[in-house]
Structures are given as C-alpha cells and as structure tokens.
Amino acid sequence: MSKFDYNKIMPRYSAIAIILTLLSVIVIGKALYIMTAEHEYWDQVANRVKKDSVTIKPIRGNIMSCDGKLMASSLPEFKVFMDFNALRQAKNDSLWEVKLDSICLCLNQIFPEKPIKEFKEELESGRAKQSKHWPIWKHRIDYNTFCEVKKIPIFNMKLNFRSGFHYEEFNARQRPYGSLAGRTVGDLFGGIDSARCGLELSYDSILRGTNGLVHRRKVLNKFLNIMDTPPIDGADIITTIDVNMQDLAERSVIDELKLINGNVGVAIVMEVATGDIKAIVNMEKCWDGEYREIKNHAVSDLLEPGSVFKTASILVSLDDGVVDTTYKVETGGGVWPMYGREMKDHNWRKGGYGRLSLPQTLHYSSNIGVSRIVDEHYHNNPEKFVEGIYRTGLADDLHIPLVGASPARIRMPKKDAKGKQYLNWSKTALAWMSIGYETQVPPISTLTFYNAIANNGKMMQPRFVKQVMKDGAVVAEFPPVVLREHIAKESTIKTMQTILEQVVSQGLGRKAGSKTFKVAGKTGTAQMSKGAAGYKSGTINYLLSFAGFFPADNPRYSCIVCIQKSGLPASGGGMSGVVFHNIAEGIMAQSLKLDVKDAQDSTSILIPDVKDGNIMAADYVLTHLGINTNADWSGSYVDGNPIWGKASQKSNMIALHKQVEMADSVIPDVRGMGAKDAVYLIEKRGVLVKLNGRGKVVKQSLEPGHSIKAGEVCMLLLE
Length: 719
Known about the structure:
Elements: H1 6-36, H2 39-49, E1 50-56, E2 63-64, E3 70-82, H3 84-89, H4 93-110, H5 116-128, E4 134-135, E5 141-142, H6 143-150, H7 160-163, E6 165-174, H8 182-185, E7 188-189, E8 194-195, H9 198-202, H10 204-208, E9 212-219, E10 222-229, E11 236-239, H11 243-260, E12 264-271, E13 277-285, E14 291-292, H12 297-300, H13 310-319, E15 328-330, E16 335-338, E17 341-344, E18 355-357, H14 358-363, H15 367-378, H16 382-391, H17 429-433, H18 443-454, E19 459-460, E20 465-470, E21 473-477, E22 482-484, H19 490-505, E23 520-527, E24 541-550, E25 557-566, H20 572-590, E26 613-614, H21 615-624, E27 628-631, E28 644-650, E29 653-658, H22 675-683, E30 688-693, E31 697-700, E32 713-718
Helix pairs in contact: 4-5, 11-20, 13-15, 13-19
C-alpha cells in the first residue's frame, strides 16, 4: 500500500501553486505598470545613474614652423560650476553658510573685476534655485587660475561630489608667437572649438583627431568614466613658415604702412627651389589706426597687378620670337594715342623717354613702350598673346590650401559664331592688358611667376605644409610639386633674369637693391578701380608693388610686396621696393656666416680681460677657451666652493692668485670684480647692495674692512 496520502498532500500543493500564481501576476502587473505608467520616471532615474556614449574630445595637434617652433598649440581651459543639489544631499549646507564669505573673498582676489557682493548674490541665487550646474565664473580660465580656484574652501574637498564643485575642460588654442602669420595659421571659434580659417581649417581633419566614447556609471553618488573607445589625438603639421623671416617681414611692412599711411600691406617670401612659403604677411588698417591681419589678401585679392605684369608681356614677346633685346620702340613725349585713348608714361609731364630699347621699356617701366610692342605684334591675333600668358602659368590654379584663395582671372578673347567680331574684346583691351590692367591676379600668383623666372623657368607650387607628424614620427610627406617644367625657353628666361637685374641696378627699382648682393625684380604702380565708379572717383587708390628675387646671380628667395594706399605720393619702387630691400637684407643677414679668423687684425685682443672674483670659475672658462693660466691653488669647479682672488695678464697667459677671504663681520674688498661676484660677497654678509653703471667695480661706499652694522647699504660704482 502506497504511503502517499492524496487527500493530505494535494491541498498543500494547490495552495502553493495558487500563491505562486498570484505572485507571478503581481510581478507581471508591476512590470507592465513600470513599462507604461512609470516609464518616463524610471528613464529619468536611469539617466541620473548612467550616461552612455559620452563623447571624449582628443587633443588637437600642433601647428609648427619649419624649424619645429610652436605656432599653435592646445592647452587646457576650464569652466567651473557648483552643484547645489549635491551640496544639500551631502548635508553640507551649514558648512556653505559658514564659508560663503571666505569663498566670495577668495573669488574676488582671483577675479578682482567682480566685487565680493556680486559673487555672494549670484551664488546665493544659484543655491536658492538648487541649480546642479551653476557657473561660478562665466568665462573660461587657464590651468593656473583653475588650480587657485580649487584651493578655495569647500571647493577643495577631496570628494568633489560632496562639495558640489565641478568643472568642464576644453582644449584652448594658444599661439606662442601671438598674431605672427595669424591669418595663415588660422584660429578656432572658441565657443565650439571648431576651425575658423587658415591652416587650422584646411587641415582640420588631421589636426582634430578622432573623438572617443565612454559610458558613465554613478557609484557612491559619483560618476565613473568607463572607456569604450579611446580618443585618438590629432597629428601635428609642420609648415614651411620661418618664424624669423615672418617676424622680419611683418615689421618691415608695418613700418612702411605707418610711414606712408597705407591701407593694406602684403608681403610673401618664397624659397625658389622648393616653392616653400617662408613668410606671408596680410596687414590691414583697422578703425583704431592699428594694423592687424583681418583677411588673407595675399591669396584672395583679385586686383589689377599693374606694371609687375609687364614682365610677363615682354617674356611672351621674346619667347614667341616676335622681338629681341635689340628691338627699338618709340614712346614719344610720354603720351601716345591708342585707338581713341591716351596711353601715358609716368614721366609724361617731363617729356617722356623717346626711343627705347626693349630692355629699357622694363628698366623705366614704360607703359607706351610695352603696350606698343605687344599691340604691334598681337593686335590682329590677341588669342596668341593670351595663350602665351597662360603658358607662363599666371592663370594656373595653384591649389592654395587656404579658404578664400582664388586663381587669377585673365580672359581669353572670344569671337561670335561667324568668327568675325570679338564678343568680349575691345581695340584697347590688348594694349591695357599688356601693362597689367583688364586682368585680376592675386599676389601669390604673381610671385609664383617671378619665382619660376628665378628657378630657370621651372614653376613650383606654393607649399605651406611639409609634413604631418604623430608621436615624433613622420606619417605623411608633402614634397615640392612642379606645376610647369618650363614656362618659356631657357634662353628667354636667361634674358629676362638679366633684364630684371638691370631694373634694380639701372632702372626704377634701385631702392629695392642691396650693396652686398644682387637683386632682380620689377616695380609696379597701378590705379585701383572702384567698380562702377571707375578709377578717378574722389581720392585715387593705388596698388604699389615690387616683385623679384635675390641674390640675382644665385637666387635663393623670391618676394613680392604689395601696398594699397590712397592718394599721392605713390611709388612702387620707392615704397614697396623699400620694404623688399629691408626683407631681403634681413634674410641674407640671418644666413650670414663669418669665420672669426677673418675679424682678426693687428689691433685684435685675443686674450680676454678677466675680472677679479671667483678665480676658480674664471680658470674653468679660460681652460675651455684654450687660454693658459698660472694658478697657485687647486680645486674643482664642478664640486668645489668659490675661490676668491685676483687675475692679471702676463704675455700670452692669465695669472690667477688666491687671496685670503675676509671675516663675515666686515666688508670685503670687491674692487676689480664683476657685479655678480661683488653682490654675492657683500649680500651674503647681510648688507644690501645697490649698483650704478656696468663693468668692473671701481668704487664701494663701505670701505674694505668696515665693520658691518644692521640695515647698512653698500653702493657700488661700476665702469
């Protein structure tokens, strides 16, 4: 017989099953209630304890000069906040009330522009609202200031969630050289850390890096970051800019602009062999009379270039073989009729130049001479002349990596469908185009053309960035790019190099020249059009230019200077040429290396004058200079204490003699010593020293052996 008692056991199982069923229904019901009615509430709770896919910004890469100097770098900046809700939950309200006055006093000391009263009112307002993100200071602060803020009472609590103090960190762009090459290097929109212009914008994808992702969990009322995808910091870009050349060019441009009251000043320095842009200046007069970089005029200004274009006109004529250097042209008395208009030379009031050779038309920048040469040989076929200009590369798109850059606009003549009449060409168009009007050429294109002449006809693309580096390793190279192997025949280039050198040595470009090296180039003075108002509406604006290269016999650098100014006097050679001269002289001086032996003569002093004082230090220096010494003492400069004494010169050596040091209670004899040793010996005895002059000590107000008294001052006269 079975021991299982059905009547007793089954009621028990049924009761358990009913209870479990009821519990299941309750759980399912509660789950459905949470999923529907309380869905929004629990979402808010979840958001308070966790945050998924929080973006972590990488460190932006640096922008560096060609020799590794920092031109733009990222440093941390902070915005500081208070979470008054966390402060209340941590039960620190009473502590806040006690320390509030101290907090406001400290904040006023760090940010003195805001009174203590305002700090107190604002913080109390945030506390009344129980704000979780109340700004302590509305602006970003640097790291040093941030450290000071963290030392303030309550803010300095180790568990920040108990104090409510928290912060946001930003990557702020800092520029060690200030505004140097500012428009080319570029900058950021500070509020959103995004690139605004210049290389910062053009190479943003390289500099910016890749964002990382973390998810955040709240543990013990404090968020912990758990890394999902680490950020990848941006790479560094190495530019072609030379800081020294850039500084030299900026100072030269600004000095001339101030002198002549100019409106805009542009200067570009290019390395002939590579096309590297070593300096680029864009100064513009602002409302307060100061000059700043507002726009990158060097790559974006589409202006009629004026007489610097004449070089291209003569180059095309020589290269096509329609003229040679023996060709003569009549310029008359400085005024010449051209199809109903008058062409004038700059000296027309003085009677003009008369008959000129082809080189002389550039030497003296004769409008009539150049325009007559071009018009006589291309008037019936202007397309051939413009094709020749295109062949020089002046109209090429240089692919400048700066936003706003534009290629030159040089129009090609077009005829109607029947091929009889020109649609966009007048009888005077060719004559005026040949002297730099009816075209629009940015300074960078003009310089690239002159650089090609200096480079024996090879046109290089202007290069702004050489390399991309990451963690000290080169990850990308941007080698020099040749745009055109030859812009003209080799013989034509050689002839043009000679003519341009003569423009400076014999013609109107003399002020751009140098006494120590040869310079080649061309001046330009052009009236600037005012659109529909034409050239002569009110005050006339001028574009003054000088483009060339140096040294002319072995070109290393090419340079263009363009100045915009209102009214007369206006001279490309006398104003822009002077800036070119200053830049060229400065650059060549920086690279000048002389052998010290060349400076020696019969009057040269080969053994230095050694001051009395620490003779052990003097012996160390003299020994490393290869100068013999005669010492009656011994000691190690690296490990020993100073040895005091006197020095004297004997034939080809220095004699160093040790002297007994006076007691600390009396003034020592410091006559014959330098300021460093004299001050050390006296002030270590508790006497204040004041210096007058420089050189050796020749007189001391407290005599040697004087007994020292508290508060005494010793005056030292140096000569």
